[in-house]
């Protein structure tokens, strides 16, 4: 994308004019790409440290400061680099300069050109890739090679650390209601189940657990959609937990007939990390 020269503006005090004027030098296709990049940058900020922004200007400040700040936030897994940027300002009265840093000028350009704004959801990603390379087009689904719906997000070992999930929710049957097992799982994963633990968990499922028949052809290098990856975790997490407990010295008692579907959950008197047999 070629940078354009900013047109001369008589009154430079009119800050609200500068950005729309600059963006107006780009084609509509370029503006849609800029819009998608801004959404991506904001999503990186949102993901980092599972932060919950209390006001939207925080996102705009990060974007206004530039990709270098967002990269620093990502690498630190912490919002401290952004806090340092806040110290640059004498008062909160300065911050409104950054409200809607890109969204507002883009809205003005959409309106001036009489074109619709990019759609909500993942469809806007289509403005970045016009075509998908053949070697990336197919993804692995349980039992077959197929194609995801347009806009589907694919997950590989390179992106597992970005997953949002609470591991106990992925235990089979009623195990997610069993405090003994969920507490043990959280202990093995760490007190907060940081994203790196999630990546290690999935890798360990592939490396250390015998995969269920429907996943027998699945490999760690495969790209899976969210549904298939969730199914992989759900089908094997209780087996992973059983393996970890045994490796930690636990001697399993007799298997419960109802396994992970048991309503009683006999605490330590029975093993529920198994499939029902009755």
UniProtKB/TrEMBL annotation:
Question: What name does this protein carry?
Answer: Uncharacterized protein
Q: The organism sits in which domain of life?
A: Eukaryota
């Amino acid at each position: 994308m070629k940078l354009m020269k900013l047109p001369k503006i008589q009154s430079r005090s009119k800050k609200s004019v500068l950005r729309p004027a600059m963006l107006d030098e780009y084609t509509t296709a370029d503006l849609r790409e800029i819009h998608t990049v801004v959404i991506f940058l904001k999503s990186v900020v949102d993901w980092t440290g599972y932060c919950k922004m209390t006001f939207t200007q925080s996102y705009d400040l990060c974007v206004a400061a530039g990709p270098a700040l967002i990269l620093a936030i990502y690498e630190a897994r912490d919002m401290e680099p952004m806090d340092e940027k806040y110290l640059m300002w004498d008062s909160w009265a300065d911050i409104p300069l950054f409200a809607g840093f890109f969204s507002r000028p883009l809205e003005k350009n959409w309106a001036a050109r009489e074109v619709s704004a990019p759609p909500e959801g993942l469809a806007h990603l289509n403005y970045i890739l016009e075509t998908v390379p053949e070697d990336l087009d197919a993804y692995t689904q349980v039992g077959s090679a197929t194609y995801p719906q347009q806009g589907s997000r694919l997950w590989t070992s390179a992106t597992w650390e970005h997953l949002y999930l609470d591991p106990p929710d992925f235990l089979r049957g009623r195990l997610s209601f069993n405090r003994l097992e969920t507490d043990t799982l959280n202990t093995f994963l760490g007190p907060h189940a940081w994203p790196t633990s999630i990546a290690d968990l999935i890798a360990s499922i592939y490396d250390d657990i015998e995969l269920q028949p429907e996943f027998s052809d699945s490999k760690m290098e495969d790209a899976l959609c969210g549904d298939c990856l969730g199914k992989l975790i759900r089908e094997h997490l209780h087996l992973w937990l059983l393996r970890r407990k045994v490796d930690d010295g636990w001697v399993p008692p007799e298997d419960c007939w109802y396994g992970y579907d048991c309503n009683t959950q006999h605490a330590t008197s029975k093993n529920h990390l198994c499939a029902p047999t009755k």
